[in-house]
Design a protein that fits this description.
The complex is a heterodimer. By secondary structure, chain A is an alpha/beta fold. Chain A has a single domain (about 5-285), classed as 3-Layer(aba) Sandwich (Rossmann fold), CATH 3.40.50.970. Chain A has helices spanning about 5-30, 35-40, 40-50, 75-85, 125-140, 160-170, 190-195, 200-205, 220-230, 265-285, and strands spanning about 65-70, 145-150, 175-180, 210-215, 235-240. In chain B, the strands form 3 sheets. A 7-stranded mixed sheet of chain B has the order 3-2-4-5-7-6-12, with helices on both faces. A 5-stranded mixed sheet of chain B has the order 9-11-10-13-14, sandwiched between helices. A two-stranded antiparallel sheet of chain B has the order 1-8. The chains are: A alpha/beta, B alpha/beta. The structure holds thiamine diphosphate (TPP) and magnesium ion.
Chain lengths: ~280, ~300
């Protein structure tokens, strides 16, 4: 069990803020893209990239690396921010998001950008991919772990449950999923559009180890990662309660902010709010 | 020039049609704001069903509704409607010749910044290959309205290919749009441009440039890819002796292929195809992408020049 110390915790927090700022800047510059869903899982992704995962930007193809699959591929800006911050490519590339010729495609392209493990964007497919990667780890007797991030609307796709069944069937304890449980999809609240509830019970019935956490509480995220490592013989999922658009008050919980980018004014406003949060955190320290 | 996105025309026409016919049911898969079925949902909430992010189930439900007597219009982005749910479309919908009209938006590369994963460049080929399926690719808003009304009245499954961006309006209210009949927009004798969707307007613009050079081309809006208008293709092949096909789609299996099949069999003449050359799309603005992949007036003009010269 790896306990997180104060220093590591503050790094994870700081990186999450940096990534949220980059997400806002990138989307502002691109003029289109998915803001709400790129912000909600920033704390989870920060814990993965800046605490949990065993990866090396110098060797993106290293065979024993842990792998992260962004099944909800529309949150690409967040993934790109994490990879840039990790040093997989120069930070300047971030401003080319969604532009012609850029390695930073609207949805992640594994053949264009180092560090991208899977080409995603068509919802539902990333988790099957992650199951395949975890299975390969078992075949080769490697001890890498595979992490996958799903949207709570995304799990309406039937293939997600086919993958969930397969992961349990093959006892993939090297696989851990996070559900970004922000309650919203494009056409409204998930409960009103097409309820996938009860989510935790469904995973449990399929044979997974199920954790229900606050996806913005670093201690809870880290604890779930620790449990995921310990559990043997079955995969683990953390159903993580989040706020879509987390960190920018006017974006939070607004269904219309799913697929729109901030304009100049909104970028300023969002960055100011994130800066204030950072300042407050520093004062506390 | 007046412009309108074909998906906007679809949203409006669907409400109009819904008012006339009580047997219409509309389905969507969490994209109703983008596909514009949200307008129908607002007008007739009791006849609209959101399948959530579950395109395969949506197509299966559409088949069941149709088998129980409903006329179903099912929408999503083209890549998901025809790709993700292909086999449900084939076996549940088309095999039984059911009344499901698949009206997919965000087709082709003009989806733009979302990138290659979201740009369907093979949907015409996929849908055209299924028995019983009718395939219509309208060039503008007024055509969409007419296509929708015709498809409602036509027995069996259909695929209506719609786009994301605003495009020029080519036709007035009184155009004679008939499913299965190509429209001769310009009659010239040196070569024929046969186009569908957004490429029809590019063909018209290219024809003007060519006319200034003394090259007189025909322009055909081949909005129905299946059943294709064999008679018109053979007539144009005979009259002009050279054909250039234009589509926002891979050159493998789409309009160009359909025209070649007819020309080879009934009246062989040189045919060239402009479209995507067996590649995926990528992120970029729609205009940049059209340039990048050669779906431009310049490229059309160059091709016609060399076609005419080499004859
Ligand atoms: C197969 C598929 N269908 C539809 C879409 C279009 N789409 C993109 S994001 C989205 C909503 C996703 O909702 P959710 O999974 O809850 O994501 P989040 O709220 O985390 O952004 C939809 C329908 C898609 N990308 N893939
Ligand atoms: Mg959600």
């Amino acid at each position: 069990m790896r306990e997180i110390n104060e220093k590591s915790l503050s790094i994870v927090k700081e990186k999450a803020l940096i990534m949220r700022r980059e997400v806002i800047k990138m989307l502002g510059e691109a003029g289109s893209g998915h803001t709400g869903g790129s912000l909600s899982p920033a704390d989870i992704v920060s814990c993965l990239y800046f605490w949990e995962m065993n990866i090396d930007a110098e060797r993106p193809d290293w065979e024993n690396r842990d792998r992260f699959v962004l099944s909800k591929g529309h949150a690409a800006p967040l993934l790109y921010a994490a990879l840039a911050e990790k040093g997989f490519f120069p930070r300047e590339w971030l401003s080319t998001l969604r532009k012609i010729g850029s390695p930073l495609q609207g949805h992640p392209d594994m053949r264009k950008l180092p560090g991208v493990e899977a080409s995603t964007g068509s919802l539902g497919q990333g988790i099957s991919w992650a199951v395949g990667m975890a299975l390969a780890g078992k075949i080769d007797k490697r001890d890498y772990r595979v992490y996958v991030l799903l949207g709570d609307g995304e799990i309406q796709e039937g293939m997600v449950w086919e993958a969930v069944m397969a992961a349990a069937h093959y006892k993939l304890d090297n696989l851990m999923a996070f559900v970004d449980y922000n309650g919203l999809q494009i056409d409204g609240k998930i409960k009103e559009v097409m309820s996938p509830e009860p989510i935790a019970d469904k995973f449990r019935a399929f044979g997974w180890e199920v954790l229900q956490i606050d996806g913005h509480d670093y201690q809870q995220i880290i604890a779930s990662l620790n449990i995921g490592r310990e559990v043997k013989g079955r995969p683990t999922v953390a159903v993580a309660r989040t706020v879509k658009g987390k960190g920018c008050s006017f974006i939070e919980n607004q269904v219309d902010w799913h697929g729109r980018a901030p304009n100049k004014e909104e970028v300023e406003k969002a960055l100011a709010e994130l800066q204030a949060e950072q300042d407050a955190a520093e004062i506390k320290r | 020039m007046e412009t309108q996105a074909t998906r906007d025309a679809y949203g409006k026409a669907l409400v109009e049609l819904g008012r006339l016919h009580e047997d219409i049911v509309v389905l969507d898969a969490d994209l109703s704001k983008s596909t514009k079925t949200a307008e129908f949902a607002r007008a007739f909430p009791e006849r609209f069903f959101n399948a959530g992010i579950a395109e395969q189930n949506m197509m299966g439900m559409a088949a069941g509704l149709a088998a129980a007597g409903k006329k179903v219009f099912a929408s999503s982005f083209a890549v998901f409607a025809t790709g993700r749910a292909f086999e449900q479309v084939r076996n549940s919908i088309a095999y039984g010749n059911l009344n499901v009209k698949i009206c997919a938006t965000h087709s082709g590369i003009t989806v733009g910044e979302d990138g290659g994963s979201h740009q369907s460049v093979e949907d015409i080929a996929l849908m055209r290959s299924i028995p019983n399926m009718c395939v219509v690719v309208p060039a503008d808003g007024p055509s969409v309205r007419k296509a929708l009304f015709s498809l409602y009245a036509r027995e069996g499954p259909a695929y209506l290919r719609l786009g994301r961006p605003s495009v020029p309006v080519i036709y007035g209210e009184d155009s004679d749009f008939e499913v299965g009949k190509g429209i001769e927009l310009k009659n010239g004798r040196d070569a024929s441009l046969i186009a569908c969707g957004i490429m029809v307007n590019e063909a018209l613009r290219a024809a003007e440039v060519l006319a200034a050079e003394g090259i007189d081309v025909s322009v055909i809006d081949m909005h129905t890819i299946k059943p294709i208008d064999k008679g018109l293709i053979v007539k144009k092949a005979r009259e002009t002796g050279a054909i250039l096909c234009l589509e926002e789609h891979t050159v493998l299996g789409g309009l160009g292929s359909a025209v070649c099949e007819v020309v080879c069999e009934y009246c062989p003449v040189p045919v060239r195809r402009i479209g995507l050359n067996d590649v995926f799309g990528q992120s970029g603005s729609p205009d940049e992408l059209l340039q990048h992949y050669g779906l431009t007036v310049d490229h059309i003009v160059q091709n016609i020049r060399s076609l005419v010269k080499n004859r």
